[in-house]
Every structure is written in structure tokens, then in C-alpha cells.
Write a structure and sequence with these properties.
alpha+beta, 5-stranded antiparallel beta sheet, two-stranded antiparallel sheet, 3 helices, globular
């Protein structure tokens, strides 16, 4: 089992759009396994994307609403209907803010063997799919915040008001 350290906001890898996966080799298999080990290595985690462990590749894993899996090279379709709920991120530990997301999401990509894969969900699963897909595009959930909520989030981030690096695992 390989639980990898989570990169924290300020690390440039979190702001860099990821490269598509083109080689479905042993290295990719290990990446998917490491991501899943990192996801399941601590309670309360809904997803981990490759840049969160320092890898520039379009890969994420998820475990939300009874659905667990991985996705490679995703594209996402979102509903017009929206939801508002608190959202957090392993890369900004301990901070949660009300975040608007689409109520329904469908993600299409491929699995670790290059076979087509589709996952659709509503509510929390849709939120997790959007959050992880954003990571692969160099975006964090705080980028979606608006108004006073965004200003408060940025103030807390600048002040370092999130959990210590020792809690990254």
C-alpha cells in the first residue's frame, strides 16, 4: 500500500493543467493504485487527483455515494440545475466553503486499460466528479467561489488558516 503525500495550495503542480495519458503501462497502473491507496488511506476522502500527489496526468479516483473508481482523460457534461453545499479539498486542508456546483454530472473517459468508461451522478457524487475534474485542469474549488465567500476564503488561505502539513496523509 502506497499512500502518497498530498500537495498543498501554493504548489505549482496544482495550478498546471494536466497532460492526457497516452501510455497504459505499468507506470499508469501503479499511479492508479497509489491514488486509490491515498484515497482510502484516511477516512472522509471523496477523491484524489494525480496533481494532488505531484503527477501531471489526467487521472483521478473517487469514492462518493457508494461509487468508487477511477477515470483517465475525462470530459465532463453538467446539468443546468445547481446545488449549493460546503466543499473542501485535501490540498486546502480544514477549510470548507459553500460552493455552487451542477446537480448532475456525467464524466466520460477511459479506464486503466484504455477501455471507454462513463460515470454519471447527482448530488455528492456529481460534486466529487466536478471537483476532481477541475484539479486536472489546474483549478481548485476556491476558484469557483464568488463575492464575500471568495474574499473570506482567500484571506484564510493567505493567513495559512488550514491544517498543518503534518496532517497531509
Amino acid at each position: 500500500m502506497t499512500v502518497r503525500p498530498i500537495r498543498i495550495i501554493g504548489d505549482p503542480v496544482l495550478r498546471t493543467p494536466c497532460e492526457p495519458v497516452t501510455s497504459f503501462d505499468a507506470e499508469l497502473q501503479q499511479l492508479v493504485d497509489d491514488l486509490m491507496d491515498t484515497l482510502t488511506g484516511a477516512p472522509g476522502r471523496a477523491g484524489v487527483a494525480a496533481p494532488q500527489i505531484g503527477v501531471n496526468a489526467q487521472v483521478f479516483v473517487y469514492d462518493a455515494d457508494g461509487h468508487r473508481g477511477h477515470m483517465i482523460n475525462p470530459s465532463i457534461e453538467l446539468s443546468e440545475e445547481s446545488q449549493d453545499d460546503d466543499e473542501g479539498c485535501l490540498s486546502i486542508p480544514g477549510l470548507y466553503f459553500p460552493t455552487r456546483r451542477a446537480m448532475h454530472a456525467t464524466v466520460r473517459g477511459v479506464d486503466r486499460h484504455g477501455e471507454p468508461l462513463t460515470i454519471s451522478g447527482s448530488g455528492f457524487l456529481a460534486r466529487a466528479l466536478q471537483h476532481e475534474t477541475d484539479h486536472l485542469n489546474g483549478r481548485l474549488y476556491v476558484d469557483t467561489l464568488r463575492g464575500e465567500t471568495r474574499r473570506r476564503a482567500l484571506r484564510e488561505i493567505r493567513a495559512g488558516r488550514f491544517d498543518s502539513p503534518s496532517r497531509r496523509r
